[in-house]
Amino acid sequence: MSHSVIDQTLAARCAALGTATLYEANGQPCAVDPQIRSLWPGAFIAAPAYPLVCSPGDNLSIHIALERAPRGSVLVVDTGDFIAGYWGEVLTVAAEAAGIVGLVINGGVRDSAAISKRRFPVFARGVSVRGTVKASAPAVGLPMIFGGVPVADGDLVVADDDGVIIVPAAEVARTLQAGEARADKESVMMNQLSQGATTLELMSLGHWREKAWP
């Protein structure tokens, strides 16, 4: 997957399917910790990952990543789940100028109203006014485990109101194809439901009709 140019067709396919369908289609544990949620309703990302690690309460790695990350990247930032204001309006403006298309962080951010107004996609564990120091940079651009899921430079990050998934670059084409097949099947099912069919029938769960509960 190329960092240099955002694949609008790929992003549109991901947006049409959503993270839940893509997660099911992938068939692997690719969903990150569900506590990492969108900062504002409707935020969406579908872009190559650029991973980095921050020490607790220290955001130096982010500043370095803004110079190194290819345009079209989403920053995936591990903080060891430490909640502080690693990111705010200043870094948002810098990220936009650098061509960064979003942020996924298992720590905190601040200036949430300003970020939301700019419509910059941020997915975070929390919001905190606490500032950070700039003293260490454990890792920038290297593979890591993020929210329980492996992530490497160039893996596909898809994030929406339902959560965040990370799909290995080698699995993207297969996952999209499987997701679109799943969506087509669900479309047929929903049409049948609207005509009066039941989920017990369509999901071959009819044998539960005879189950008696005390």
UniProtKB/TrEMBL annotation:
Superkingdom classification of source? Bacteria
Q: Which InterPro entries match?
A: RraA/RraA-like, RraA/RraA-like_sf
Q: What is this protein called?
A: 4-carboxy-4-hydroxy-2-oxoadipate aldolase
